[in-house]
From TrEMBL:
SUPFAM superfamilies listed in its UniProt record: Composite domain of metallo-dependent hydrolases, Metallo-dependent hydrolases
Taxonomy of the source species: Bacteria, Pseudomonadati, Bacteroidota, Sphingobacteriia, Sphingobacteriales
Signal sequence coordinates: 1-27
PANTHER family from the UniProt entry: BLL3847 PROTEIN (PTHR32027:SF9), CYTOSINE DEAMINASE (PTHR32027)
InterPro entries registered for this protein in UniProt: Amidohydro_3, Metal-dep_hydrolase_composite, Metal_Hydrolase, Metallo-hydrolase_Enzymes
Signal in keyword set: yes
Pfam families to which the protein is assigned, alphabetical: Amidohydro_3 (PF07969)
Protein name: Amidohydrolase
Keywords per UniProt: Signal
Coiled coil region boundaries: none
Keyword Transport on entry: no
Residue ranges of every copy of the Amidohydrolase domain listed in the record: 252-443
Organism, scientific name: Sphingobacterium daejeonense
Length: 443
């Protein structure tokens, strides 16, 4: 049963003694209805949810995990955090969780919120030539028009992500001579409008190359703004120099206390050289460990298993993460090897209905499902383990079946899904019924 925000408010919150509503929520019913229909939603200082299903352990037959144990609980949320987790109880007028499964909210860790057709008329991908450089030429032509409505479309795209259980994204945003800083500024307006229900990290992304076009001055300016990462794009094939481009990116990140997240589509020798050079630079600058990522990194999918394991070990030791889309054409990335070696692996939708791709659904849970299919994770434990790809590593149970989420004090970022356990949610791409972000009902 879907817990709509209207039913949520009508049936529980307004009648629940002790819940402190925002001043806006105390207005007349007609005004309240307007707010319920508004995308900003309402903020609550406190809420209690009964009949919430949480995972408590694995069920075994001999040595095989054959199921996931769950039970119903009552969750109290206050000031954006989980205040208490207790046995299920009939608190009067509390929110009825309907026995839905509570999971950590999802995170889309590679997306382009700043350039999309979503929220506008349908457009399929047009015929294109010249590879990435051909796409750069196309963008130089279409970006001025896209920018006119980019704030509105970004907001609509955020709403799509929220409906799929995602309340956080790492968005790459174009920084180049055509858009200058306008793409970033327009997206920041959208994010400000949605901040009560959505969190973000921003990557200053030189989509048209660092040196291929005169992007350096704009990157330097963007680095001083409210962003989190310095991006990059195929330093060999676009800029013609691995060392020059990576050295510039690393120094800009160090000078401005930012992380690094570089698009690397190159799949041949230059791709391997770029991976190794990034690892070397991170090892030389230890403050970048845990703050450096390679997006796509397709070169890993085109080498033999021994080389994959060697590079995975180096990535793990230097704490360089990999952000992947699943799948990408016919290429299957070695995600199980990366995870086994301890590399941080994140996933995202990348493009959603834009001039690069029209197949994005907005669901990262679908990406976990695809990963499980691609890599044969069909067992109860295998399916459950794929959830970490879409929660930035958080799962309700650890490898041994011990409950590790949620804990008292955790931020109240959660989804309620129509599933009996994580494994089922991944396998069936179970419907998201409600989304809560820092204690705020979002969807």
């Amino acid at each position: 049963m879907n817990i709509s925000r209207k039913d949520f408010l009508k049936n529980s919150v307004l009648g629940f003694a002790g819940i402190a509503l925002s001043p806006q929520a105390l207005m007349a019913d007609t005004n309240l209805k307007e707010q319920m229909d508004n995308t900003d939603k309402l903020n609550f200082n406190k809420m209690v949810i009964n009949n919430v299903r949480l995972e408590t352990g694995f069920d075994y037959s001999n040595d095989e995990i054959i199921g996931t144990k769950t039970d119903l609980f009552t969750i109290e949320i206050e000031e954006g955090k989980i205040k208490s987790i207790g046995p299920n109880s009939n608190v009067p007028n509390a929110i009825d969780g309907k026995g839905l499964l509570m999971l950590p909210s999802f995170k889309d860790m590679h997306i382009h919120l700043d350039k999309t057709y979503y929220g506008d008329k349908w457009q399929a991908v047009r015929r294109r030539t010249g590879g990435v450089k051909g796409m750069i030429k196309l963008e130089q032509e279409i970006m001025p028009e896209l920018l006119k409505t980019s704030t509105h479309k970004a907001e609509k795209l955020i709403e799509l992500l929220q409906s799929k259980g995602t309340n956080f994204a790492r968005s790459h945003v174009n920084i180049e001579p055509t858009s200058k800083l306008d793409s970033l500024k327009n997206l920041q307006v959208a994010l400000e409008n949605k901040k009560s229900g959505f969190g973000e990290e921003l990557v200053a992304f030189p989509q048209h190359g660092v040196f291929y076009t005169d992007t350096v001055p704009y990157l330097k300016e963007a680095a001083k703004m409210d962003i989190d990462f310095i991006g990059g794009l195929d330093p060999s094939s676009i800029d013609g120099a691995i060392e020059k481009t990576i050295d510039f990116t690393v120094q800009l990140a160090l000078d401005n206390n930012k992380g690094i997240d570089i698009h690397l589509h190159e799949s041949g020798e230059s791709g391997i050289k770029t991976i190794e050079y990034i690892i070397d630079k991170v090892n030389e600058n230890s403050t970048l460990k845990g703050k450096t990522y390679i997006s796509h990194c397709f070169a890993l999918g085109n080498i033999d298993k021994n080389k994959q394991e060697e590079l995975a070990e180096k990535l793990s030791n230097s704490k360089v993460g990999i952000v992947s889309t699943v799948p990408f054409g016919n290429l299957v990335m070695p995600i199980p090897i990366l995870m086994k070696k301890g590399v941080e692996v994140l996933v995202g939708n990348d493009s959603i209905i834009d001039h690069w791709n029209t197949f994005g659904s907005g669901s990262v849970l679908q990406k976990a499902n695809l990963a499980a299919q691609l890599y044969g994770f069909s067992s109860e434990k295998g399916l459950a383990s794929m959830l970490k790809l879409v929660t930035a590593g958080i799962t309700p149970l650890d490898e041994n079946g011990n409950q590790q989420w949620p804990k008292v004090g955790d931020e109240a970022n959660l989804v309620l899904v129509d599933a009996s356990c994580s494994a089922e949610a991944v396998s069936r791409i179970s419907p998201v019924e409600s989304l809560i972000f820092k204690g705020n009902l979002v969807y």
